[in-house]
Amino acid sequence: MHMQQRIMQELQSIPEGKLAEIYDLIHYFRLGINGEQKAESAQAKDMAASLEAYASSYIPADGAKQQAWQVIIDEKYNRS
C-alpha cells in the first residue's frame, strides 16, 4: 500500500472535530519543508559567492591556480 493511501486510511479514522488540527499540522509541516529548501539553496549560493570572492581576492592571479579554484567552487556548488 502506498504511503498516501495509508495516510488517507488513517485520516478516515480521525473524528471530524480533530481534522482541523491535522490539517494545520500537515500544512505547516509542508511550509517548513519548503522554507528549509529555500534557505539551504540561498545559503549555498551565499557560500559560493563568498568562496568566489576569496578565490579572486586572495589567491594569486596565476591563471592555472585561479582556474583550479574556480573548478573546485563550481564542482562543489554544481555550477557549470
Keywords:
about 80 residues, mainly alpha, 3 helices, elongated
Question: What would a concise description of this structure say?
Answer:
This protein is mainly alpha-helical. About 80% of the residues lie in helices and about 0% in strands.
Number of domains: 1
Shape: elongated
Order of helices and strands: HHH
Report low-confidence residues grouped into runs of 5 or more.
none
The radius of gyration over CA amounts to 23 Å
Structural class label: mainly alpha
Helix content: over 70%
Q: Tally the helices.
A: 3
Q: What's the story with the biggest beta sheet?
A: none
Strand share of the residues? under 5%
Mean pLDDT: 75
**N→C terminal distance:** 41 Å
Number of strands: 0
Describe the structure.
This protein is mainly α and 80 residues long. It has one domain (18-76). It has helices at 3-12, 19-58, 63-76. α2 packs antiparallel against α3. The longest helix has 40 residues, at 19-58.
Q: How is this fold's topology laid out?
A:
Layout: H1 3-12, H2 19-58, H3 63-76
Helix pairs in contact: 2-3
